[in-house]
Amino acid sequence: MYNVSEIIPLLFYLFKGYCLQYFLGSFLEVRQKSKLAARISAAVLYAVVLSVVGFIEPAGEPNSRPAVWKLSLSLCMLCVVALCFYKGFRLVTVFLVTAFQASADISQYTVAVLYGKLSGVLYDLLKNSFINISLKSYETSVLIMNCVFTGELVLGYAAMGLLLYFSLRRIVKDFREKAYGINITELLFLIAPSAVGLMICMLLRIIMVTVENGVQNLIYQKYPSLTAVIPAILLLSLFSILCGVKVFQDMIRLNAEKSSRMILEKQIEGLQTHIEEMERIYSDLRCMKHDLKNTVSVIKRLFDKSANTSELQKYISEVDGCLEKLDVRFNTGNIVADTLLNMKYYEALRNVPNINIYADDLIFSQELKIQSYDIGIILGNALDNAVEACKKLKANEPSADTFIRLRSVQKGNFLILTVENSFYGRLVISGRNEFPETDKADKKSHGIGLANIKNTAEKYQGTMDFRVKDRVFTLSVMMKNERRN
User: Whole-prediction pTM value?
Assistant: First the structure.
C-alpha cells in the first residue's frame, strides 16, 4: 500500500506533466490525430519518468548523483517528450525545453528554502502546543503530527505547482508570435536567462547540503541570512526569464511595425511616381490639343508646297512619334492596371531596350471586387521586380532576350495573377528569410516588393508564391474576389 508521502509526489508529477503538455502544446502541433489523447499521453509519460528518477534518486539525498547528470537527464526527458508527441523540432523547442526545466527547478528550490524554514518553525510551535496531549495519549499525538506533516507536504507541493504553472502561463501569454521562426542569435537571447537559472539551481543542488562531523545540515540552517538571499536570487532569475520573453516579443512587434512603415512608405512612393506619370501624360495631352490646330495648319501649308515632300514626311513622322508616346498599348478592363502597365512599359524601354511585355491574357472582369488600389500595388511591385531582373540579365548578357508576361485567371471566387519574366538565374534566400535577398546596398529601402505583394494578397485571404525554372522567374498571386476596406 502507498502511504500519503508517496501519493502526493506522484500527483505532483502528474501536475508537472500537465504543465509540460500545456506549455509545449501552446507552441507546437501534436503528432496524433487526437490532441486530447496526445496531451494526456505526454503528461503521463513525463510523470512516470519523473517517478522513476525520483525512485532512483530520493529527494532527500541531493548529492547522491552528480548535479550535471541530473540536469542532463531532465533535459533529455523533455526533448524525448517533445519529439514523440509534437511535430518538428524547431529552435523554439530548445527554448521551451530550457525554460520549462528552469522554471520547474527555480520553483522547487524557492519553495523548498522558504517552506523548509517555515515548516520548521511551525513544527516547533505545534510540538509545544500538543506536548500535554502527547503525555496523555500517544495515539492522538501521532495522529496530529501525521496530519501536520501531510498538510505541510500538500501545501509545499501546491506552492511549487502554482509557481510553476503561473510562470509558464505568463510565458505563453507574453510569447504572442508563436509561429515566428527564431534564428540562432534570437535563441541565444531567449535561453540565456533560463540557462543562468539552471546553473544557479545546479549550484544550489551541489552546496545545499553540508556535512560537519558526520552530520548533514542544510546550508541556510548554517547561514540563516541565506533563507532570504537564495529565494530572492531564484525569483529574480525567474523574473529575468519572463522579462526576456516580453522584451523579445516587443522587439518583434517593433520590427514588424518598422517593416510595415517601410512598406507603406514604399507604396506611397510608388503612388507618387504614378501620379507624376499621370500628370506628365495629361500635360502632354493638353499640349497636343493646344498644338493640334497649329499642326493641321502646318500640314496644309506643306501640302501647298507639295514639291518638298521630304520635309512633309519628316514632319508627319515627328507628329506620329509624339502620338505614339500617348498610345494606350494595354487594355485589361481596369483603368488603374492599364495606366500602370503603360507607364511601366515606357519606363522599362528606357532601362531595357527591346524588352517585350505581353499582357494580352491579363483581363479583369466587370465583377472584380478587389480594389484597384490593391491591384496597382501588386502589379506595380511585380513589374518593378521583373524590370530589375531583366535589366540585370541584359547587363550580364547583352544578347539575351528579355520579356515580361502577365496573365490572370478567375477560378470560382478566386483571382489568380501570374507574372513571368526572364531571369539571370541567381536567387539568394538565406536563413529564415522568406523572400530573396536584394543585392542593392540599401537593403532597408529595397527588397520589400514581394512583402508588399504578400501583405496585399493576405488582405484578401490569399497567398503568394514564386519559383525559378529554366531562367524564368514566375510569381503567382491568389486572392479572394471580395471587397475589403
Answer: 0.61
